[in-house]
Amino acid sequence: MDYVDKIKIIKVDITKKQVDIIVNAANKELAGGGGVDGAIHRAAGPEMMDELKEKYKGCSVGEARKTKGYDLQAKLVYHAVGPIWRGGKNNEDELLRYAYSYCYDLMYIDNFKTIAFPAISCGVYNFPLQRAAKIVKEITLEKIKEHKQIKKVIFCLFSDKAFEIYQKTFADVLNN
Fold first, then answer.
1. Is the pTM of this model over 0.90?
2. Right CATH number for 7-174 from 3.30.420.10, 3.40.220.10, 3.90.1150.10, 3.40.50.720?
């Protein structure tokens, strides 16, 4: 399968992407926060937080909840909760995999074609970037094969380090 046209890795502010879905690296309380979570909440406007409070009482690690995009260019935001890194002995790899998988499956159910992800759990949750990138690559390739309607997956990375690690991890499928 040719992934070159379907996967894009860029260093950019995720809140500026014009896609069907932006994924937010949320906390279990869905209460907003720092990093990408705070940036998405600020860019979307207060209505997004109002919708979260009205519809949900939090979210389990490895799952996601959805809201409208409000002032973002995206139609929806999936608020995915990744694991806090605790040394790798607390099912962190599987929980991260579930968070991405949950978003791809929601995307399929909602019948959308484009999605933008941050590096979930790799900021204040301290998930090792290289380890996360391998998991993300594996689940992304699997879900692109499974869900034929996926046209574009964009990884919007904030730091040079994250960008370089994702580029290296995906190099074999993006440079063929």
1. yes
2. 3.40.220.10
